[in-house]
Amino acid sequence: MTNKAKVGGIELAYTSKGEGDPLILIGGFSMVKEMWERQVADLSQQFRVIAFDNRGVGESTIPEPDFTIADMAADVVGLMDYLQIHKTHVFGVSMGGLIAQMLALDHGDRIRKAALGCTSHGGRFAVAPDAEVMALLAKMGDPGMPVEEAIRLRLPIMYSERFIREEPEKIEKIVALSLRHQPTLKGAQGQMKALSFFNVKKRLGEIRCPILVITGDEDRMMPPDNARLIAEGIPGAELYIVKGAGHAFYDEKPDEVNRVLTAFFRK
């Protein structure tokens, strides 16, 4: 069941399932809480799992585009306050990994452990996608392109060739879910602007909570070298590479990923 939390002048839609230590799932660009289905189902057997819609998407408030990743991290802290959670584990993917880094930096006393998935430290020293991916992303930005065509064009960037070839039923379910939860133009622009200005490369050494950096070895959207750069920059960080998975590695290999996350958060 979806609930609403009033946080800093906006509303955040969230779900909560399970008992035990809290674990907040932080989605990537345009990602909504419904897209965490396998993580919620598995991880809620060990943790109290909270999934929510970031500002700008889903059932949460769609504010004006001028907000930052720091604002989105503050949203998470506000949600924690609303739920009376003093400290939590977090797992953020892609843009959610940026938010998780900002939480660890600016709100480290509220974070037990953080898992950073398929993300980067931002800035000019991050490793960019190859030219083919950049061309596809530019093409997807055409306002005249039908929504479903844009979603299907994104699939080879988000998922490995193997997954697309071997799991057609799952792919169609993903397409349907994406169609059902398309962001508004205003919401998408707000999130894109926020993530475009993110850069914490020089601050990574300040992070003190335990960190797991995790990514798929076939990630075309956020090349795996970005994960290695983050792990190298954070003292004591662990690095885990999911073999044979793309950007949405948590979708492709949920059993493996959930097992790794559980082991990290529980040890």
Give a structural overview.
The chain has one domain (3-128, 184-266): 3-Layer(aba) Sandwich (Rossmann fold), CATH 3.40.50.1820. It has eleven helices and eight strands. It has helices at 37-43, 69-82, 95-106, 131-140, 147-158, 161-166, 168-180, 185-196, 225-233, 249-252, 254-266, and strands at residues 3-7, 10-17, 22-26, 48-52, 88-93, 111-117, 211-216, 238-242. Helix 2 (69-82) crosses helix 3. The chain is globular, with a radius of gyration of 17 Å.
Would you kindly provide a brief summary of this structure?
This protein has helices at 37-43, 69-82, 95-106, 131-140, 147-158, 161-166, 168-180, 185-196, 225-233, 249-252, 254-266; strands spanning 3-7, 10-17, 22-26, 48-52, 88-93, 111-117, 211-216, 238-242.
Q: Would you tell me which CATH topology applies? A: Rossmann fold
Helix content bin: 40-55%
Q: Would you identify the CATH architecture?
A: 3-Layer(aba) Sandwich
Quantity of strands, as a count? 8
Rg estimate, integer Å? 17 Å
Quaternary organisation of the protein chains = single chain
- Please state the overall shape, judged from the principal axes of the Cα atoms: globular
Q: Tell me the strand order in the biggest sheet.
A: 1-2-4-3-5-6-7-8
